[in-house]
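The following record pairs a protein chain with its ligand, iron/sulfur cluster.
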Amino acid sequence: MLVKEFCMYCGECAGVCPRNLIEIGENRLKFNKKDCKKCKICINACPVGALENEAET
Ligand code: SF4
Ligand code: SF4
């Protein structure tokens, strides 16, 4: 997951992840990428569109 610089660390994305994989830090977001199922719920929940999927590999 890519977090753009205008993320305001509101916690919205962390609250909606069904697997609880997002942690809000002081000035960063921490994703547990290993367990992410790429459901994109967090991407869709961000009010400012600060999340973007990394290129699928
Ligand atoms: S919902 Fe968007 S602005 Fe809020 S913490 Fe998540 S990425 Fe940042
Ligand atoms: S894509 Fe889905 S599983 Fe992955 S961090 Fe976002 S909400 Fe959680």
